[in-house]
Design brief:
Layout: E1 2-5, E2 8-11, H1 15-22, E3 34-37, E4 40-43, H2 126-147, E5 156-157, H3 159-175, H4 185-192, E6 199-206, H5 210-217, H6 221-227, E7 234-241, E8 247-254
Parallel strand pairs: 5-7
Antiparallel strand pairs: 1-2, 3-4, 6-8, 7-8
Helix pairs in contact: 2-5, 3-4
Amino acid sequence: MAIRFGGWAASGALLSALALSACGGDDVECGTGTHQVGSVCVADDPTPPRPEAGTPTPTPPTPPAVPPPTPGVDGGPTPPPPPPPDDGGTPPPPPPGDGGPTPPPPPPGDGGPVPPPPMSMSCTTPEMCAAWSMELATLINNHRATMGLCGGTPYTWHDGLATTALRNSQAMATSDSLTGIPMLFEAAMMDSGLTAYDGGAAFSGTRLGPMDVLTRWLTNADIAGYFANCNLTHIGAGFATGASTVSYGTIILFDPTP
């Protein structure tokens, strides 16, 4: 800190000497940071007076309590918006698991359920087995037409051949086996009243119906060859079901010309 007398500046320890030599008489004008004592200017003492022993130190006053800021005002936290008024609208659905809609299961192969195998199907009554026999003959005729076999000419249904085919299927159903059942064309001739023949036969088991039987027959070159033999003009078919629910089918193809 510095004080100024006229054109001179002084500081610190030189203050008293400057004050005594520069000031005289009672008419003294002391500068900033000094005060007059008698006829001299002395520097102000920046150190406050020490309290006398035994004098209590005054306690600074306690500042008044400041109330917390009002929400939304004076920088306080903003309260959440009020709920929308009930205008009769439909509230959003709750999340899944809290009564909300259940999401669909993932597709098979991505952790979803494995689809069940095709439903088993058998002919369970004589009427149903007879209908399967006619359906099988129709499917074979449609195949011949589609492939242009023998000009697409359909087989003619023959009741005598159908009786023999049914007898063969019933024998397989009784044993629940495709083996050990000989195809006796002589019996077919007797049932049909034929004295000469050129024929072929096929049999199979299924739980999926006549189309399943035909599909597998078409993968067999010998049986598929029967359908291309234009000398075979008549057909008979029969189905019967065993205890295992396998339905056994038989067809007989003949040329009834003597």
